[in-house]
Amino acid sequence: MPLDDDTHIGRTIARFRKAAGLNQHQLAARANISLSLLQKVEIGDRAANHSTIAGVARALHLPPEKLTGQPYVDHHGDEASRRHVDAIRAVLRRYDLPSDSPVRPVTDLAADVAEISRLRRDADYNRLVVRLPALLDELTTAAHHQPDASEPWRLLCQGYFVAHNLLHRLGHGDLAEVSQDRLDWAAQRASDPLARAVTAWARCTAFQAAGDYTHGLRLMDTARTELDDELRGQPSPEVLTVYGSLHLRAVTLASRAGDADTTRAHLRAARDLATQLGNGDQVHYGLTFGPANTLTHEVAAHVELGDAPAALEAARSWTPPQGMPRTRRGHHHIDLARAHLAVGDRAGTLSALREAKRIAPQQTRLHPMVRETTAVLVSLHRRAVPELSRYATWLGLTS
Questions:
Q1: How many CB atoms are closer than 10 A to CB 79?
Q2: Annotated domain spans of the chain
Q3: What DSSP assignment string belongs to 58-90?
Q4: Which residue ranges does the record assign to the HTH cro/C1-type domain (predicted)?
């Protein structure tokens, strides 16, 4: 079952490395990774993790999407989504030029914003990308028509937040950064400190992708400091959710940076806040926070820190609460697949990948780590495995 060359990150790295006139020793040194790791990644014996991709991309002066192959175009649905992405691009471009069209009451707009937020949490990107352009356009007009009212601006913030997440998942990194800038612009007008904190949370996506973990952590520190007054006394569930999510974002950044001490410190802080929140996980401002999501971040952090056995051990006590977003549940099984692969458990890897597909198929098919994990699993098998072959074909890794 041969892989298509342009779907294998290791082969892509090798191709760009040779085009840059670098040998493996030189690229490993510039990317700050070990030579043995680079060699294994290039031949498909080891999966490239987030920090490896970011380091190599930086060393080769490429955006990470050049290595992961995003945005993916494997079937007609991807081509259709690109047309809708172009429509989103147009709305983002005219953010300060509202139309003269009448807008519906704020209550109707709020209901639609709640619906697109649900579609995002359910990873229903096919429906979301169709609905988002027109709603964003209407939200923009509504906010401009009521410049002194905070609610239309808060709704516009939520629309931009959904757009940012969608564009990032579809692999349009540069456009996701544009939507983040629009989110920041709207948050400044919403008179809502939590909206501004969510803006910082979203902004960290670009730092993560670029491997700029130091500045990402500084941004999270600043965002938490700006919420300190909100945290005093008896903070609301909304404050605890947003503040805790900033810690979880820092967990991701620190673990990808290989900083175990900082990772553990933010995990402890997140657990304390989750205990204070009570009532399990909650969703506010588009962010999920609570004990279960904190544990998923712990599992992912162990994977990023190179301790797959610890990740698998931590996952034993994980039980997703009813109503936990599909995006979070699916992502957890993606990280479990990476952990199983790292310990050589091929059956466990495929099982976790199947579960991720069952929970959130669209997110799974578009996730670079799923494609990389599956590509390495295919490479490691010396004979065809029918179930794995079908999975790889579904992802678009084989024809």
A1: 10
A2: 1-69, 72-191, 193-324, 330-399
A3: HHHT--HHHHHTPSP--SHHHHHHHHHHHHHHH
A4: 13-67
Token reading at 109: 């707009």
Asked whether 284 and 242 are in contact (CB, 8 A), the reply is yes
Q: Is the peptide bond before 71 cis (omega within 30 degrees of 0)?
A: yes
Query: Are the C-beta atoms of residues 209 and 57 closer than 8 Å to each other?
Result: no
Q: What dotted CATH number matches 1-69?
A: 1.10.260.40
SS (H, E, C) 195-217: HHHHHHHHHHHHHHHHCCHHHHH
Domain 193-324 has CATH 1.25.40: yes
Q: Which long-range contacts (CB under 8 A, 24 or more apart) does 269-272 make?
A: 270/244, 270/294, 270/297
Q: What is the CA radius of gyration of the chain?
A: 21
What is the per-residue burial (b if ≥16 Cβ within 10 Å, else e) of 264-276?
bebbebbbebbee
130-139: pLDDT as tens digits: 999 999 999 9
Tens digit of each residue's pLDDT (9 = 90 or more) over 269-319: 999 999 999 888 999 999 999 999 999 999 999 999 999 999 999 999 998
- Going 149 to 152 to 155 to 156, the CA torsion angle's sign is negative
Which of 373, 343, 379, 344 lies closest to 356 in space, CA to CA?
373
Residue 5 phi, psi (nearest 5): -60, -35
